Every structure is written in C-alpha cells, then in structure tokens.
Amino acid sequence: MANENLPLGGVYLAPTRNPFNYEKFEQISRDIATEWLTLDEITQQLNLYGDESQDPFLQGLELAVRMHIEDYLGLPVFPISYRVYYGASSLYGSPLTLDLPEVSQGGVKINSVKYYDASSPTVLTTLPVTQYYYDPTGNKIIINSMPTEINSYMTNPVVAEYTVSPSFLAQYPVIKQAALLLLTHLYNNRSETTSGGLQTIPYGIDALLRPYKPLVL
Asked: What gap in Å lies between CA 61 and CA 54, rounded to an integer?
C-alpha cells in the first residue's frame, strides 16, 4: 500500500520475520534405513505375536513415524545433514557469523564452508577448516577470515554444509511411547479420512511430545 509519508509514494516493506542471517536451507542427507522402533516393540504394541506377514508394512510405518517425530520436534533420531545459503548481506560483522537453522543436543559437525569466487563465478571454493569453527552457545559458524574475492553477483555466494548428531532425547521412554501410539493410530487408520472425518494427531501423542517441542520466539 502506498504511503504518502514515503518519498514518491513508496511502498512500506515490513522487516523480515527471519531473525537469522541465512537465506534458505535444505536437507541433503537423512538415514531412511536404520531401525529405531524394533519389530519386537511394534508387534507387542499391536498384539501381533507370531504374525510376520505384515513386517514390511510395519517397517514402512516405523520409518514414517520416526521421520514425523524428528520433524515435529526438530529432534534427530539419526544424523541429518543440511545445506545452508547466505546472501551478501550476511557477510558483515567482526567476527563474521553464520546462523544455523537446525541443531541438536547431540552436537553439530560442520562439514564445509564454501563460497563462489569472483574469478571462477560458477565454481564453489572450499574455505580451509582453520578459518572457521562452530559456536555451540549461539548455534553459529564463526569465521575468522573470509576472502574478499567473493562473487557479489551471486544471490547467495556462501554455502555451508553440516550434520546434526542424534539427540539423546530420542531414547527417552516418553518419546518412544508417543511414537508407538502414533504407529498404532496409523496402523488402525490406513487412509487420511475415517467415518468420523479428518483425523489430527491423537491427543495422547501431542500430550507426550509437547514438553519436548522447542519454543519459537
């Protein structure tokens, strides 16, 4: 909406709601094979003693449940890797810091920090590991020195890749019990709708998980 108090009737742009200095991030690696809930735990929950005919289906449900728990809580059960992009506006400050969007109580490993070099504008150049370190108190990468020949025409000239380690919370009985409840719900309701209409996450699951869901301020 035009504002008569702005020069030339300009448009007021509200500040971004992202308080961090990354522009975007993407998940690049995730364990989709390792078992978290065992078949023994699942069959006991579902009272399927001695019935192995549904094992492949149950293993698929177990994976879906585990990924949902990870995404809902931001809690990695197994290592997950991300790629984060930073625009030119992020490359200021002393020392230079790069915010990370996803972290874990189990720790973070910085795999690489790369940048687009002005002399080779389409090639990512890797920053030596001696030039940066991870600050766990602020969930940031601290860069001691960044080259000045960064390609300023690239929208997001700096790219970091990192891996979050499994969280110890994933082994809490309350988390696993919530996972078993959700698996039971999915096993008994094999479509998105039932006779009662659309189903949300059952209250019992939400009640168990909510204390471990991070607050977003």
From this structure: 11
